[in-house]
């Protein structure tokens, strides 16, 4: 297990960021989606929690095989996906990620938002607060971003909002900017596979950091698009974009239903978000051949051929039959193609 606490400051208030976050996530997911890969929204509905009150629950499937490093693509099937489940009780959220192919892989993210510049060292007052973790500040203006994601219009060193007059962000902007808020994210990555654990957990944290940097840059770079929206308006935008994104990546309703009938004891344990695949090789009882069923004969016991007529006969055959044993074998051995066909059956 590898735990890190990320702190991302924004030139916004916590209330403003609530709208901007929803807008950014929807638009970003749509931009990053393509045919067969992207973010499929499975569920998005209000949720009531006895401790945190009214919130929103979302479940998504993230298809991203082509975005994996070469060493990971070699062992991960193309049909795999990551399931994201999020419980949003703003300004507190919990997000969990599991993988359809790797049941021992998970990411847990606990997020809190405050109107400060990231100087609250005791914000996560949980049983995990005393565990060793690295605190990482992410600067949305000056931290290096992967080149493939760079856009000049989203470079916050030179961007200035027309509607809020905020920006351009200069060196040390976190000490001088007003308003300012901070996203505190406690990220725990687990990959309990011997020999790969350290490498995978470090790689996942690098991906998480890049996603957080890009997403928060875009949230502010797009501020003029969402700053005047109400919560109802941004929820409607969210629904519209979700439908367009699902169509873009080619998600269609399943043609079969999954029953809740318990699996046999040979079924592999699996995350609740993914169907399981039986791992035993025995044929189902319905396909087994009854042991007391008589064996079907493939040919009669004897085969009769007409006896040749004496020379001079017009049809070349006589009417006297000659019995031939059914157990005689051809002198010509089977060809390789014949053997191959047998092996395929």
Global mean pLDDT: 75
Order of helical and strand elements = EHEEHEEEEHEHHHEEH
Backbone shape: globular
Q: How far from one another are the termini?
A: 47 Å
Helix content: 10-25%
**Could you say which structural class the secondary elements and strand pairing correspond to?**
alpha+beta
Features:
single chain; 345 residues; alpha+beta; eight-stranded mixed sheet; two-stranded antiparallel sheet; 24% helix; 24% strand; globular
Summarize the structure.
By secondary structure, this protein is α+β, with helices and mostly antiparallel strands. Helices cover 24% and strands 24% of the residues.
Structure in words:
The protein is built from seven helices and ten strands. Mean pLDDT is 75; it is low at 252-291, 295-305 and 311-345. Helix 1 crosses helix 4 and helix 1 packs parallel to helix 6. The longest helix has 25 residues, at 197-221. The protein has helices at residues 14-31, 70-73, 173-176, 197-221, 223-226, 231-248, 336-344; strands at residues 2-10, 38-49, 53-63, 82-89, 92-99, 105-114, 134-138, 181-191, 302-306, 321-325. 24% of the residues lie in helices and 24% in strands. An eight-stranded mixed sheet has the order 2-3-4-5-6-8-1-7, covered by helices on one side. Strands 9-10 form a two-stranded antiparallel sheet. By secondary structure, the chain is of the alpha+beta class. The radius of gyration is 33 Å and the shape is globular.
């Amino acid at each position: 297990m590898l735990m890190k606490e990320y702190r991302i400051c924004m030139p916004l208030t916590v209330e403003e960021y609530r709208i901007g976050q929803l807008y950014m996530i929807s638009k970003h997911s749509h931009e990053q989606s393509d045919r067969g890969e992207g973010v499929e929204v499975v569920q998005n509905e209000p949720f009531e929690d006895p401790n945190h009150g009214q919130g929103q629950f979302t479940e998504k499937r993230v298809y991203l095989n082509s975005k994996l490093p070469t060493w990971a693509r070699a062992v991960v099937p193309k049909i795999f996906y990551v399931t994201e489940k999020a419980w949003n009780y703003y300004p507190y959220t919990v997000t969990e990620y599991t993988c359809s192919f790797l049941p021992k892989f998970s990411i847990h993210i606990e997020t809190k938002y405050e109107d400060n510049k990231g100087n609250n060292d005791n914000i996560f007052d949980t049983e995990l607060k005393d565990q060793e973790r690295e605190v990482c500040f992410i600067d949305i203006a000056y931290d290096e971003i992967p080149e493939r994601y760079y856009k000049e219009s989203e470079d916050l060193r030179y961007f200035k909002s027309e509607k809020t007059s905020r920006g351009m962000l200069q060196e040390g902007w976190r000490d001088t900017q007003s308003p300012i808020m901070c996203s505190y994210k406690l990220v725990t990555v687990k990959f309990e596979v011997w020999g790969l654990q350290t490498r995978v957990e470090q790689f996942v944290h690098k991906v998480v950091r890049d996603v957080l940097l890009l997403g928060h840059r875009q949230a502010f770079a797009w501020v003029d698009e969402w700053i005047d929206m109400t919560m109802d308006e941004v929820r409607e935008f969210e629904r519209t974009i979700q439908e367009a994104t699902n169509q873009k990546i080619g998600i269609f309703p399943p043609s079969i239903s999954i029953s809740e009938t318990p699996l046999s004891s040979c079924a592999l344990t699996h995350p609740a978000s993914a169907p399981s695949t039986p791992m035993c090789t025995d044929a189902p009882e319905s396909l087994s051949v009854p042991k007391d069923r008589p064996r079907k004969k493939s040919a009669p016991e004897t085969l009769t051929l007409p006896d040749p007529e004496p020379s001079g006969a017009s049809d070349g055959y006589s009417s006297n039959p000659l019995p031939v044993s059914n157990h005689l074998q051809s002198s010509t051995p089977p060809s390789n193609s014949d053997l191959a066909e047998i092996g395929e059956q």
